[in-house]
Amino acid sequence: MAGKTKKSEASSSSSRNSSRSSNHREESVVVDYGKNKSSCGYCKSSARSSISHGLGTQSITINDYQDLLDRGWRRSGCFLYKPEMEKTCCPAYTIRLKAGDFVPSKEQLRVSRRMQRFLEGTLDCKRPVESVEDPNASTDTCSRTHLGVSSLAVKESSSNNNEEKDGEENIMRFLSDQVGNGVHACSESGEFPDIQFPKASVKKVSQAKRKILGKGSEDLLYSTNIAFQIAATIKRSLPDQKDGNQGRLSRNITDENGPSPKLIAEKLESFLNQLAKTSGLSVRACNGHLNFYSAAKHASAYESSQTVSVSKGSAASSESKGCSLKNSSENTQVKRRRLEIHLKRSSFDSEEYALYRRYQMMVHNDTPDHVTESSYKRFLVDTPLIFVPPTGDGTVPPCGFGSFHQQYVIDGKLVAVGVIDILPRCLSSKYLFWDPDFAFLSPGKYSALQEINWVKENQAHCSSLQYYYLGYYIHSCSKMRYKAAYSPSELLCPLRYQWVPFAIAKPLLDRKPYVVLSDFSTLQDRESLPPHVSEDVMEVQHDDIGKEDTNDFLMYDDEGMMEPEYGSSDNEQHLASVDVEDGDVSNILIGLTGSRVKFKDLKFAFRPSERSYLEFQLRRYMRVVGEGLAERMVYSLE
Q1: Number of neighbours of residue 196 by Cβ within 10 angstroms
Q2: Average pLDDT over residues 454-469
Q3: Other CB atoms closer than 10 Å to residue 222's CB: what's the count?
Q4: 94-123+338-523 — its CATH code?
Q5: Percent residues over pLDDT 90 in the chain
């Protein structure tokens, strides 16, 4: 793990946990909200096409929550939800990875190396500066962003021709890295799918070329056609976009013909504005090209050797204003950075909340009134999981079992927080939020690699802890597909709750969104596959899967869930109109007025009509949680 890792425990969990009554403390207590229909945060359908079942929780044991995960449930704060897979618009399959079998892809290795270079000081990036609009830019075809102009940023040199050539190569290499960071930022924010893109190459524009381009090109210095390459890569990697499914891509980069180089270039320009990776130049997106111009009125000052000024300090320092490129002839001492990773019990932290608020508003474009302290606590701090302290006997990891926040701190500055649950068989990743200034480090991917590594390391303390759960995988949502890049992963069958290798599930999901995966779990050779499925798709290529962090991020898992408004629709339905499997509900434990009574000992206390309706509810409840959990957890009527 890059950097020094520290693990600390907060003195208490959320107020909701600390205020629990000591009575019935080691039990799971749930309230059945029933089925709900809402608009979908994934496909953005305006219809109430997202259908799920909800449970409220007063408390839940770590073993019960582990078993709920293995039946397709997830939590948002103290609320549990499970998609009704046959009916919902975007079926969401639980996805997991056995940490010991993980094989990192080339892109994932690049993410680790990029972070290492950043910590070593060889990848030196600073915080963004404010943009200045160019009043001369054409609004219909070109837009222009000023990249932190300083009168001392680019200096004319009297060095010889060799030094001049070296300086130009440094500038082009610097700008290529700058564009590459913008591509990574777009992937992290979900604007681009999470696939391997070609490396950006910025070239010098000759004086002869500027003359051909005519007026307005006098100060044009460098250019790249990376937007055209990105558009072509997306079309090749996501062939289903040609079938009228362009809604799966961000509408900000597509037109009626698919991925648009013009729109991609404009999106990159906006991220270059946010990252501000250079000084003394401005960038303009023109008809799919990214062009770099001198900030001065004439280009002649740039015709000789150039040196981009080096500013001291780390990326996290408040005084940082740009990104530095160290001249090869300078003997500048490299400043190393320190990464610390702190694991703490889930509790409110004002610094974390400030980072979450900034992340939601800058990355997801939330308005300030939607990012309140109460909503943050309800979403990411409150937890029903009953904490289990370490035992030292090889059955519990040193941190214990429960809900945690994993903080990533660089040079004393909080840059990312992963919200996770640590359970007997897995680390379950719930959400990640991060500082937008550090998007170029791919925090979503990097944190996932650290969480996988954490599982591997802690198997020595808890042998049952073997899996990394990435939440839900939605095959029809391009933002979700990055999760399958953590290979070899498995998807949960929505009917029999068996785990099926993704390599088998993918060609089936290519055909239709809802599949009983276990029907095909024994198909291991080409003869067993559907006729149109070739060996090519049986091997999942890491770089053919699209994405954060976000959430990274990776992570976008809970972004698609709406605020729960459960109960009304089912209560109004006639019992005969709802397909509920028969089951013996006699042994379900009912919570009523502080007591725990099995339904068979309580049912005659109800009038016949009340008893009949309660039996219907209990059968529906048993169908969605399973017989074992239905008889272990307390079904609260309070």
Answers
A1: 17
A2: 96
A3: 21
A4: 3.40.630.30
A5: 47
